[in-house]
Amino acid sequence: MAVFISAVGFGVVTAAILAISAVGFTLQFSVTNVFNLSFGSVMTICGFVAYWLNHGGLNIWLAMAAAAVAGGLISLALNELVFAPFIRHGLNLFGMVIITISVGLIADHSLQALVGPSFFAYTARAGRAFHFADFVLTRQELAIIGIALVLTVLVQVGLQYTRLGRAMRGLAVNASLARACGVPTRRVIALAWFVSGVLAGVGGVALFLDISTFTATTGSEFLIVIIAAAVLGGIGSPRGAVLGAVVVGIVTEVGAAYWNPELKDVLAFGVLIVVLLVRPQGLFAQLATERALAR
Amino acid sequence: MDRSSGRKLLGTTGMVVVATALAACGNASGGAGGGGGSGGKGPLEIAVFHAFSGPNAAYGPEAAAGCYPAAREINAAGGVLGHKLGCTPVDSKGDPADAVPAANRMIAASSNLAGVIGGGSNEATAVVPLFEQAQIPVFSTTGQASFDRTNDKYFWRILSPDAAQGSAMAAAAKKLGFSRAATLFGNDVAAQGSAPTAISGIKRLGLSLLASQTLAVGQPSYRTEAQAMSTAKPQVIVTEADPQTSATYFAELSQLGQVPALITDPVSQEPNWRKAVGGAIGTALLNKQDYAVVAYSPMTTPAYKTFIAELLASSKQVPQPAQWEPDLYSVADYDSTIIMALAMDAAHSTKPSVYDSYITKVTAPAPGATMVNTYAAGKAALSQGKRIQYVGAVGPLDFNQWHNAGNQFAIERYSNGKWQVSSVLSAAEINAAAP
Questions:
Q1: Which sequence spans correspond to the domains of chain A?
Q2: What is the rounded CA–CA span in Å between residue B171 and residue B194?
Q3: ipTM above 0.90 for this complex
Q4: What pTM value is reported for the model?
């Protein structure tokens, strides 16, 4: 029982990190229908923004906030300058995926050329360790869990109770109808990209804090797990992304405790496949219908 | 098809053709035509075939840090049979899917390709057969067991295979007086080479194996595994894993209490590994706990001193050259390049299929052979008709029938800014651990 409790406890930390990023990924997809595979690269760039600020003397949490703003601006710029023009020219869904992959590769390789193939770490201490039942969490890990909770609740509250949030949900369901009803679709789409980028920034810094060191390609390497969490929960559903992150986080740690630590990814993706077989839309989302790219 | 569609198709086709041509030019290593060796007096190329991008992007510069100093030394002594020698980085990206096309392009496009240093553990199995087929000598640092008794004529390995490394790590644990050990290896090809013999060696030597973990590399968390290790309370962890995995794991282990002594391998001497793990748990703690078991190379030999001098003078091609001074892989690649050049001189031919059989003739101990430590000395002795034995920066190299050289092993500690030999493992100590 002690082993199970400690595995669940550790899984919560992983879930928190995945949740921040998965919500960002899925929120932007729900509004724009662009499957953005450069999301991991944006996480990495933001991680480095925080690194440069942190090594310039800024506290890591303030650096994370700055990285979040940077992430929002980068995502906004990517949409305005790269993705939106392609959409306006009539590029289809598959073509957009290729464009996002290209952007991600360009970003990763450019960043690697700039910073070199080295490893980097923040000057941030893990802090005091707190014992909970049979597991230990540090102050830093508790802070990450807290940030994840606050951000995911804020996103959910924003989507439910604000005008722009309702507009986003409307756009996610039917972009043409939303436009016809007077929803300022361009502004809503821009906001979705911005919020997604903010979450990418926070998620990137949280991930890099958690794994202690990072390179110019680390964000992209973790993207597949983030997507798995988002898809498991129901792609396009922020609540689902949180649940998906919790499932992936806990299943991998419990699997490592009871079965074979080598097979963490096998477990995570095995669960994903089983869930999708039973419920193809994921845990939360309604059954997806063919949607066009939002303009 | 109307006119505008036709123009679009023509434009698209044209762009595809241009892009394909650019891609072919971008990855090719100069020249046209096939095979290696040069009919004229054009420069010879030694391809540095490693990852220069992607997750393993540190391996390429590491190997280049061996080739460029050697090329500088060779060219300063007048080159090889009138040819200048150059190093050409070729990006394998560290995985077979990218390495195979890169190798094929390199072989097809290079008329002056004289030899290859490269083929790391991730791609060696895929690309070594290609070099074999093209009859181009390749000096590889892969430690995979599949090359321990290879029949490949053009494959050469200077450093000991992973299996011997694993036995040496177990022997080191015994020699250092530990009785309760654990093992921790990444599940990638490179790390798994030494895991079986390390584990069996620990058991064979009578140590208690309290935990034996294999980590899925590149995970965001190893807390559960670190908890299990912390609970087992070993005195020492025998380990090899890539920098990222090691840093994440040991950071989480240190948060749970204490990082015990670590017995590592040459990977831990790479600047990236030390930077990653030192950044995670603190450089002071890492230096205090780490015992690196490495192929024994008395870093005071004339050849090593020459390597250092040439390395530091190669700062235009090798950024921050001093970081590679203690890196055994860079040192081995330096020796590899020198050996290929001396073999060409001995064979009076730059044709790879001809000089390949002269590699053992310039390295094996033989009665009456003149011992040389530099390319210039070797070239001079060969020009006088003498037989030579090149004793390089990694020490004497005696290739067996499977083209494996092998080394002694030593335990090294990092102190006062450099690696120092703490003790040397005898053949008897290693054999006691070996299967």
A1: 2-278
A2: 13
A3: no
A4: 0.74
